[in-house]
Amino acid sequence: MMKRMRWYNPDMPSRSRVYRTEAVILRRMNLGEADRILTAYTPDQGKLRMIAKGVRKPGSRKAGHLEPFTRAQLLLARGRDLDIVTQVEALETYPALRDDLVRIGRAAYVAELIDRFAVEEEGSRDLYRLLLKTYERLCSSDNPAAVLRFFQVHLLSNAGFGPELSHCLKCGRPVRAEDQFFSIGEGGVLCPNCGAMHAAEVQPITLNGLKMLRHYQRSTYDQVKDTLIRDRVQKEVDGLLEAYLQHILERSLNAAIFLRRVERMQRESEPPQD
């Protein structure tokens, strides 16, 4: 009986059935009685969805290594719909992020933004490093607002949505040292003349707010972390960034709502100062 020959096509890309990758676990969802579907971000393959079979069974060795906000080394087997976690080793669990609800809220906010902006099968080592550095800074910094603000600004730049802060979007002239306008829809500043002509589409931004945004956009974290900024300017910039992010994503962030709620509860529970 003649054997059927198997033809080899040298132009056909080969994909190993099993592969390794480092990843940060962003979120999880229970499946059936014992499994979980995980969403993770990797440096080379972008966002991945995978299944961890049996991870919810008592005594599962994988469970503690696949918690949200964990940096892990994964061995995955390619599946028909979802790749399967066959081995996992936690590299960093960031325990300080799990101390209280506020820290959990901050970590969840970062994870949700990565999840919304990241693209499947399109990795970015710069974005992966930004994610790791942000979690490290949230564990140790006494200025978490600056950590999150720096993350927001550089996430936007990495994703191609960095706002234009040097030239008017309408007339193209360099921005002068005066109060300006900001267009959420177009992603950048408008000079006073152009802003006045498009008043229904823009919002004011003070000179100090603009300087703060520029500083965060152009500088390293070490250069911005100790910058002294008035509360009203921080609120102005944080509100603008949140509105811009929501416009791009076309939705509110669940983690942002949760974080604001627990921060308010924390403030209300603090004893009044003399």
Query: What sort of overall outline do the alpha carbons produce when their principal axes are compared?
Result: globular
Tell me the major beta sheet.
Answer: 5 strands, mixed, barrel
* Strand segment tally: 8
**Proportion in β-strands:** 15-25%
Structural class: alpha+beta
Uncertain runs are 1-14
Task: State Rg.
Answer: 23 Å
Helix content: 25-40%
The third-level CATH topology of the largest domain is: de novo design (two linked rop proteins)
Q: For the largest sheet, list the strands in their spatial order.
A: 1-2-3-5-4
What letter string, H or E per element, gives the SSE order?
EEEEEHHHEEHEHHHH
Fold topology:
Blueprint: E1 18-31, E2 35-42, E3 46-52, E4 71-77, E5 83-92, H1 101-117, H2 125-140, H3 144-158, E6 180-183, E7 188-190, H4 192-197, E8 203-205, H5 207-218, H6 221-224, H7 231-249, H8 254-269
Parallel strand pairs: 3-5
Antiparallel strand pairs: 1-2, 1-4, 2-3, 4-5, 6-7, 6-8
Helix pairs in contact: 1-2, 1-3, 1-8, 2-3, 5-7
